[in-house]
Amino acid sequence: MQLTVWTYEGPPHVGAMRIATAMEGVHYVLHAPQGDTYADLLFTMIERRSKRPPVTFTTFQARDLGKDTAALFQTATRDAYARFEPQAMLVGASCTAELIQDDPAGMAQAMGLPCPVVALELPSYQRKENWGAAETFYQLVRTLADKTARPAPRDGRRPRANLLGPTALGFRHRDDVIEITRLLDTLGVDVHLVAPLGASPADLATIGAADFNILLYPEIGDTAVRWLERTFGQATVRTVPIGYAATRAFVAEVAAVAGTDGAGIGTTPGTSNLPWWSRSVDSTYLTGKRVFIFGDATHAIAAARVARDELGFEVVGLGCYNREFARDLRTAAALYGVEPLVTDDYLVVEEAIQALQPELVLGTQMERHIAKRLRIPCAVISAPVHVQDFPARYSPQMGFEGANVLFDTWVHPLVMGLEEHLLTMFRDDFEFSDASGASHLGGSSPLPPAGGVGGGPVELAAATEVTGPPLAPPAGGRGTWSPEAERELLKIPFFVRGKARRNTERFASEHNLTTITLDTLYDAKAHYAR
């Protein structure tokens, strides 16, 4: 384990919490010390759920370690069943409680509770959150599924599909399910079951009655889907419908598996505006913009495809933090000719962004903080996310409407960055000076004196000086920027600032200059303008 300020994934028992919280009629008893009881913060504060997560903690303390902590677990389990009367229970230990080896699984099974009890063995020091969620969902499906369930004869009925993978604390999972359900209805396909989000143990018992499965989030549902394929012989649709082209491919795959007609779906004008917008005049200045992408493997790989093939960006960096999908990430990175980055260390990600100097970052809330410090536009595409990425409005990432959301979310940081640059450019004008009041208020600020601008050069310089944190130091030891050179660099439009910085640092390195001054910046500009 590594002590860190930020982390992309929590321990595996957090993944188990996400499954329990997503479902109905399930309760999770977690053998954990006081201090590990932060489930409420995750789900009611960040995701803004209207009810508390179904998790009971034993909350043993230091003084309890000299006593029988196993008895505390059994008491907590009995009380939780008596109070909540769940259809099924999960039991397990947190990373700290794992060290005292109380065996929650064995104790729960010996108690003879009148409901199915799924014991979780989650190695906290080898695995992480997404793996814990996938393992928990798999164990629930394997335990609760009725092995004799099979699809009913078609006899004119519509085909039925299971939507698998959406969970609590997932990035836009709620809205994705709504969008894909609507799309399936257009295809003539009914949703038999959505799991784990909103499913009960009784629902999971019928999972084998669907004609096929749709795997929306491989990080959560892949292990369970593979078991369903072996046990029930169900086919699986694996195309993740993120982006316009991927949604069209998803429609074709579903139609082929379900035996329905998907021809023409998505081709009607207005179905998705992304294809038209990305070819419009207003988007031409976006073509060729260098983008760095990092997140969970599913969203990162999908984002790279949309960025290059649908928006005309250049992918200069691609990475993910979940090592279980490193092979998929490396295969995708090879398509774009970039070095794959598989790491759970945000400092390594920051170094990569700093070295590549992209014009747009697509990532998690970590990359949002990193990009802000480096003064690079950023859009969030993947968990982990903060409360602002759980909007009250409808905002899917999948399907045709999701393609519209992607376009808006990714393009707006670039557009607003351009607007911010224009405002900075005109700050020297007396009407836009920070020292002047709003012009529409009519006389709220004095007019500039005759023959001068805004009170004279000294006052103007003080009013228009660029403020804020300095630019991050250059990567690779290519010289230190002087404050004057940094301020001048900030006057360059953001969409070419990265190139100007790289060229200047290369010029300084070739001329053995350890400090990049204002003169160095101008000399480099003249050199590369030839």
Automatic annotation (TrEMBL):
<comment type="similarity">
    <text>Belongs to the ChlB/BchB/BchZ family.</text>
</comment>
<dbReference type="InterPro" id="IPR050152">
    <property type="entry name" value="ChlB/BchB/BchZ"/>
</dbReference>
<comment type="function">
    <text>Component of the dark-operative protochlorophyllide reductase (DPOR) that uses Mg-ATP and reduced ferredoxin to reduce ring D of protochlorophyllide (Pchlide) to form chlorophyllide a (Chlide). This reaction is light-independent. The NB-protein (BchN-BchB) is the catalytic component of the complex.</text>
</comment>
<dbReference type="InterPro" id="IPR013580">
    <property type="entry name" value="LI-POR_suB-like_C"/>
</dbReference>
<dbReference type="GO" id="GO:0005524">
    <property type="term" value="F:ATP binding"/>
</dbReference>
<keyword id="KW-0408">Iron</keyword>
<dbReference type="GO" id="GO:0016636">
    <property type="term" value="F:oxidoreductase activity, acting on the CH-CH group of donors, iron-sulfur protein as acceptor"/>
</dbReference>
<dbReference type="InterPro" id="IPR000510">
    <property type="entry name" value="Nase/OxRdtase_comp1"/>
</dbReference>
<dbReference type="InterPro" id="IPR042298">
    <property type="entry name" value="P-CP_red_C"/>
</dbReference>
<feature type="domain" description="Light-independent protochlorophyllide reductase subunit B-like C-terminal">
    <location>
        <begin position="481"/>
        <end position="525"/>
    </location>
</feature>
<keyword id="KW-0077">Bacteriochlorophyll biosynthesis</keyword>
<comment type="pathway">
    <text>Porphyrin-containing compound metabolism; bacteriochlorophyll biosynthesis (light-independent).</text>
</comment>
<dbReference type="GO" id="GO:0051539">
    <property type="term" value="F:4 iron, 4 sulfur cluster binding"/>
</dbReference>
<dbReference type="InterPro" id="IPR005969">
    <property type="entry name" value="Protochl_reductB"/>
</dbReference>
<dbReference type="GO" id="GO:0036070">
    <property type="term" value="P:light-independent bacteriochlorophyll biosynthetic process"/>
</dbReference>
<dbReference type="InterPro" id="IPR016209">
    <property type="entry name" value="Protochlorophyllide_Rdtase"/>
</dbReference>
<comment type="subunit">
    <text>Protochlorophyllide reductase is composed of three subunits; BchL, BchN and BchB. Forms a heterotetramer of two BchB and two BchN subunits.</text>
</comment>
<dbReference type="GO" id="GO:0016730">
    <property type="term" value="F:oxidoreductase activity, acting on iron-sulfur proteins as donors"/>
</dbReference>
<feature type="binding site">
    <location>
        <position position="36"/>
    </location>
    <ligand>
        <name>[4Fe-4S] cluster</name>
    </ligand>
</feature>
<keyword id="KW-0149">Chlorophyll biosynthesis</keyword>
<keyword id="KW-0560">Oxidoreductase</keyword>
<feature type="binding site">
    <location>
        <begin position="417"/>
        <end position="418"/>
    </location>
    <ligand>
        <name>substrate</name>
    </ligand>
</feature>
<keyword id="KW-0547">Nucleotide-binding</keyword>
<dbReference type="Pfam" id="PF00148">
    <property type="entry name" value="Oxidored_nitro"/>
</dbReference>
<keyword id="KW-0479">Metal-binding</keyword>
<keyword id="KW-0602">Photosynthesis</keyword>
<feature type="domain" description="Nitrogenase/oxidoreductase component 1">
    <location>
        <begin position="12"/>
        <end position="414"/>
    </location>
</feature>
<dbReference type="Pfam" id="PF08369">
    <property type="entry name" value="PCP_red"/>
</dbReference>
<dbReference type="GO" id="GO:0046872">
    <property type="term" value="F:metal ion binding"/>
</dbReference>
<keyword id="KW-0411">Iron-sulfur</keyword>
<dbReference type="GO" id="GO:0019685">
    <property type="term" value="P:photosynthesis, dark reaction"/>
</dbReference>
<protein>
    <recommendedName>
        <fullName>Light-independent protochlorophyllide reductase subunit B</fullName>
        <ecNumber>1.3.7.7</ecNumber>
    </recommendedName>
</protein>
<keyword id="KW-0067">ATP-binding</keyword>
<feature type="active site" description="Proton donor">
    <location>
        <position position="282"/>
    </location>
</feature>
<keyword id="KW-0004">4Fe-4S</keyword>
